[in-house]
Amino acid sequence: MVLFRGSWFFTFWDECREGGLRPMDSEQLREHAHKMVDFIADYYKSIENFPVLSQVQPGYLREMLPDSAPNHPESLEDIFNDVQAKILPGVTHWQSPNFFAYYPSNSSIAGFLGEMLSAGLNIVGFSWITSPAATELEMIVLDWLAKLLKLPHDFLSAGQGGGVIQGTASEAVLVVLLAARDKILRRLGKHSLEKIVVYASDHTHSALQKACQIAGILPENCRSLKTESSSNYALSPDVLCEAIAHDIAIGLIPFFLCATVGTTSSTAVDPLLSLGKIAKSNGMWFHIDAAYAGSACICPEYRQYIDGVEEADSFNMNAHKWFLTNFDCSALWVKDRNALVQSLSTNPEFLKNKASQANTVVDYKDWQIPLGRRFRSLKLWMVLRLYGIENLQCYIRNHIKLAQHFEGLVAQDPRFQVVTPRIFSLVCFRLLPPQNNEDHGNKLNHDLLDAINSTGKIFISHTVLAGKYILRFAVGAPLTEERHVTAAWKVLQDEASVLIGRL
Length: 503
Hints:
Blueprint: E1 2-5, E2 8-11, H1 12-16, H2 26-45, H3 76-87, H4 109-121, H5 132-148, E3 162-166, H6 169-188, E4 196-201, H7 207-215, E5 222-225, H8 237-249, E6 253-260, H9 272-281, E7 285-289, E8 314-318, H10 319-322, E9 330-334, H11 337-344, H12 354-357, H13 377-412, E10 416-418, E11 426-431, H14 438-454, E12 461-465, E13 468-474, H15 482-502
Parallel strand pairs: 4-5, 4-6, 6-7, 7-8
Antiparallel strand pairs: 1-2, 3-9, 8-9, 10-11, 11-13, 12-13
Helix pairs in contact: 4-13, 5-13, 6-7, 6-11, 13-15, 14-15
């Protein structure tokens, strides 16, 4: 409802409530956004006061909030009060300096400012014409990052390849799997779908399994190849060759290999060069998942871990894990962008435009699953510019140094064992059972994990390696300092002493 009064248009918002919050008003935005920034800054200032792992029970929030939305506006102050009293107790604080679980999910001032700007502009950049800057900045920034990682020229946008920001590594592996599937089916015919085979190690992220389910790959054609502690859980080229030879002999068609640089369980690094040559000789698509450890490879001394990337068809790293870029921002590069476009492109009449029809621009809608997409390159651009390469390298090195410090503390206590060699900033370790009674070892470490996390002082997670329950200590939160690592070790020692004392 719009009423004309003199030279002004008055909307229904004025009629409903004079001085209320409008859908958009520059001065109201300024006022409320300042309050929100203050609230967030105060949160970070006091973040160490919260239990790292939320201690609430399932369903807690439904008992604290109304059954339905309010009929009339409420104040921002009331909402802040509810966030403090009702929401924050149910938050696990990923940005806490005492968060050592899973892998990090970095936040930073630069990343936050980029998110603010993206939210403010609020474009939906599915094609070049919908916001040329969004497409072109993404191409440029991913070229910057590719050069920083010393990726082959084939992955740059000047050629047939290029980079694209996906939401997560799960989306990245899905789109390249679909591209690889359709590429081989165009050559062999759709009837071959039931014969094509995917290969990866048994420590590859479960995202690949989900991607195979979505892509219609038969479960029995998904090879999870066993790794051994003797190779630090890296995929053996000999084991891969044997599996491929067996499948070819029974009439199956190898078509996709996923290697990992920094597995989730233990940061295992698959031998990329050897695996890539095997993939190429068998006409397979070779994808590298470096979601976590890819960030470390901006440091010259860690670049060696992606040697062999020149053999890959696609490469992925998550800038939102360990690169100070707020979630979500998963960088994917491909050598042949047409493979993605042929698999994922749609061209309805209502999206046709001169630039796209002339094939002179990139339309990122054809490189991803959804149509709509946010202006995510802004935050990566701001991270690279506001911090610079040298500071980003120092940031990575500092976390690795802190992990070395923790590894040393574990090694000094004979009750504990470092289970796998530390490569980056993850330490895998366990509490040894008394009298080396392995029957009780898994329960002992499970109980230790529960005891530690229940304190709220730190949060760590676990994995299973060679049948043994292993504790994971991943350093990577932006606020973490040596004192936090040392204090975390003290918590671990104290809780271990209590458990052992009860045996």
